[in-house]
Amino acid sequence: MIFKKPVIYFKEFQWKSKQALLPFGLFIILATILFWVFLPSENDISKKTFNRLEKIRIDKKKRVLKKLEHLKEKTQNAHEDPMLMSIFNKLRREGFTQRFSNFERSDMLEMDKHYVKEYAGFYDILFIRNDGLVFYSLKLENDFKQNIFAGDIAKTKLSRSLKKFPGIRFIDFGHYSPSKEPAAFFVKRITSNGNTLGWIAFQLSLNAINSIMIAKRDPEIFGQTGEVYLVNEAHMMLTDSRFIDKRSSLQRKVETEAIKMALNNEKGELVTEDYRGIRVFSSVEKFDFENTTWVIVVEIDEDEVITEAYEKNKSQYIPKIYAHLSKGSPIDPVDDGFNEGNIRVDINEYSKGQAGNILMTHGVTTCTGIVFSLPGEFTYLGHIYPLDESYYSWMDKIILDMAFKFINNPHGDGIVDLMGEMIHRIKYYDVYPYEIRKLSVLIVAVHTESFEKIIDRLLDAGLFLSQIKVLYYPRMKNANITTNVSKSYTAIKWLGKGGVTKEWTDAESVEDLGSLVKNVSGYSS
Q1: For residue 98, is pLDDT > 80?
Q2: How do the domains of the chain map onto residue ranges?
Q3: What is the dotted CATH code of the domain comprising 215-301?
Q4: What share of the chain is helix, strand, coil (3-state, %, to 5)?
């Protein structure tokens, strides 16, 4: 259906406006030329991204090492702590003939207070005799009264390390069965006249490191997909992934090119696939602490980087993108009649279809067709008409709202927001937040008047350019859209004037907008 944009009601003002704005127009042309000259190149995009990741990597590594050094200092001075040594000496001699016979409950309470004040950075403190007996701990978990050199505990990294290296000061994270989670240990050997009396082992949970990797302020500077994590020499992820629901520490092996490069070359930068199989910008560095080697990894999805580049330089990219838009790939005709059982979508409407449904709309002329799809789950088809918010800037909307107070709107209602309704329904009723990245969107029109606003709103909703495709055929008068939900497939019937010229296409081989931005910027991954 054809609509004339409301601006025709103000044509008598156009000539004077053009005269007044002529100098300004010349300025805009000059500015546009300069912008194109300085259009961000592949090197600019990559350089800025890696600089950003490097700053985060340096900061996170510094904070991790600062925390570890602080904890090490506390533990290596444990022999000078009167409270700790009093407990160690009393209970080591007593054994378990009588439960804490000379160790008063008040002493235990004082020890708890002392722990909170001086050692709260640790999960637990174990007091271990030289024969391996855990004769006291604050948490009193399954290791209490057990011998770490016997039974299941003998399989832990704590047991193996103390047996092989009695003077060890730090034991890297490993699964610790009594706590049923990963743990590292700072160890202070207690001696007398050169003989080992035992150890005080300060148990460190991964939460202490995870809290540094995922700080509250990071999303503001790190986007939707940025993350920082640690990997050990065995390629096992130490800290938890923000993209995996269950615990990933010491559960997921990371054998990416970035990790291999870091372990060989200490640090570097590259665009590669991450542990999820997604292309990312990756900044990595190998570092050591107490004879333990870790790799710190800072990554952000390539899709987000390209989308950010577009948003920051939209005025320069859009003309080039429009020049590369396609009508789609030729296909054989499909049935596009409004048959019984098909879901018909009229102008200024949208409908949702599920497996087995076919959605159809005809006469997309000055209007815009849009298809949202979550493969295998659902599809939305919308027929957006020219009095939708997707066609106007905020200033346009103010002017039109004022105009419609004095001039009757020939199209009935004022500006509507069909696009906003579709996005709201999908985000709040159909997908979980993590599923937004699985959506695909197809925009179809014979004009470009709505494209920029629609793309902006999709990006605001959390999508990336790589999820969006556009079919554009200005030589045609209108388009009919048919989408098969079960196949996640959409066919377009382009119609010329009088319906004489007909062409069928689809978007299967059409480049997404992310790929188009890469092309126009000269970026290559």
Answers
A1: no
A2: 77-205, 215-301, 313-521
A3: 3.30.450.20
A4: 40, 25, 35
